[in-house]
Amino acid sequence: MDWAALRNAARRGMQPGKPLQEPLKLLRVAIGMLIAAVVGYLLHDPEAQLLITVGAFLATIAAVMPHNRSRIVATAATSAAQIAAAAAGLLLGDRWAVVLPLIFVLFLISGLLRAVAMSLSIRLTVVTIVFLAFAEISSALTLSVGGATGFFALGFAIMVLAQLLPAYGSRHSAQRRAVASLYQAIAAGRAQDTALLTAERSLALLRRHRHRELDRLAQLVARGEQIAQQMRALDNRADDTSARWHEAASAQLTAIAAAVLQPRNGSVHVAASWPAEPGDALQSALSRAVDAATALAAGGDVPDTSDQRRVPSPLELVRGELRPGSPILRHAVRLAIVCVVAQVAGMAVGRWLGPGAFLAGHGFWAVVAAALIVFPDYGSTFSRGIGRTIGTVAGAVLGVALSFAPLNPLLHAVVLLLLFYGYLAFRSCGQPYTMFWVVAWIASLSPGPLGATTRGLDTVIGCLLAFAAYLLAPTWQRRLLTERLKEWAEATARHIDALVLLWTADDETHRLAVAQADVRARLTGLEFATAAGSARHEPRDRHGRWGNDALDPAVRTLTSARAQIAALTALAPLWSTDERAAACAQIEAVSRDLDVVAQAPLSAAADDGQPPAVSAGTGADTATAMERLRAAVTDLEPLAAAQTGPVAG
């Protein structure tokens, strides 16, 4: 056990975030829960009140989770799935020979959906937990299946209707903020690596929806890459004319960033005020790229067909993970197995302790803990698990204390409402702070202290099972980095080859090939950067693979290559025939270097943080993979900097 890594995980798990994030979203669900609490109280039926309150709470989770569609559609669709899951659970009841295999399949699918989007995976996880919970508590309910489902659905309906309240903001506000931050970083001359990766992540998998606004934002990111590289090339010239061009571009980029943040386009109407007519290819390419970005931000037409990068469909993404060695498949199997084991363990502990010490029919809380802790990487699994456990224990203590309050229906409703509002205020602060309020709220749903003690014990069981599952069948991101690097090198080599064909013969077939190669290179680059970020929080590999010192330089190298290729794409239309031929020859050499990186078997690195070396027999015995990659990227720099003289033609 690497105790330093474990301490770091605990520290991250306990680090508080900022409370009261997205207050308007919180206000809508706060009003919804207030209405649900009043309706539940007026029914004067504790079981109906509980079902309505729980339904409204689960609808709250559906409303506050990230979503790609409108908040009403996203909340309603997830709510409908949870209501159907509850009804199915009630109908199946305690038929565990059917329930356990079914939840195994559902959790397996949920794990595989990580390849598509984490929010989609979490939504299916919540739906599966609802199904399991109602299957286990079905024998304890006195209401009929229809009655229990009806009251449960009423809580959802109240919260869905609350989503109709204003304000009505931008549907893709998170993506807008990410793209605007990229342009602000470029305008200020700050390092753009982090901003570019954030923007790419926010858009990469949403493009499958073929939404016009997402297409606009994605093309603004591509333009931003070009502009950033061209402005760096201007800085390298260090003369007065280049400085004036840089200043004009920065002013326009700031205006573009402000326009992108607006829910409606149109606040930028004019192109940048350039200091003079372009005197060379770099100035011309920069003016074209900035003016094109201005037109996109101002609401101009979004280029169609081959200019739209095709993103793999959800089915293609999941199918791509159904292979031996896939980290997502390993995560899905690990999640499915540990959740089934957690359910069996929760029920066994309940029977062993008896109804006097354990709330009967609530073993599923062990599954809740395990399912929401098991992540594909070490850092998230252990930081979340430690944070949830600490928050759960503290919340259980508060729940036990509140159980000694007088049994008054009105007081009960008020306490539940206040605890729910505590959850809303602190849900953005992290796992321990969220779980403190949630566990106290859940404990207060039923009279007496058993709800709190059962929830606390089950959470500890689920956390221990999650930790054990990860340690027995781990997925170490450090060991995946080499594979990720090779995938990116191969995809980038194909992208370069497609560009050479396009520059040789500009036709629709070659444009489509470039668009598809571009998106594959972007996605593989994001996968490498994401794996590198996760690897930083893992224990040191005893084989010395990818020390932390190698991670940031590797990500910067990949990002630099992306930016330089984007700059070349913008410059190519300005080259003369001879310049284009020379560029093709040089960039083809880069492609061959990348092919060597992609095909070479890579050996382990030393513990000093050096990248993995290329082993003997590959034709590059003395070079390391990253050294060859850096050399290939360096070969792009003179081309991307457009040191080619006056504008051709």
Describe this structure in words.
There is one protein chain. 71% of the residues lie in helices and 0% in strands. With 649 residues, it is mainly α. The chain is elongated and about 85 Å long.
- DSSP strand content: under 5%
- pLDDT < 50 stretches: 602-623, 642-649
Overall pLDDT confidence: 81
- Output the helix-strand order: HHHHHHHHHHHHHHHHHHHHHHHH
Alpha-carbon Rg, integer: 28 Å
Helix content: over 70%
Largest sheet, if any?
Answer: none
Tally of helical runs: 24
Q: What form results from the Cα inertia axes?
A: elongated
Number of strands: 0
- The helix-and-strand class reads mainly alpha
Q: Span from first to last CA?
A: 66 Å
Descriptive tags:
mainly alpha, disordered C terminus, 649 residues, 71% helix, 24 helices, single chain
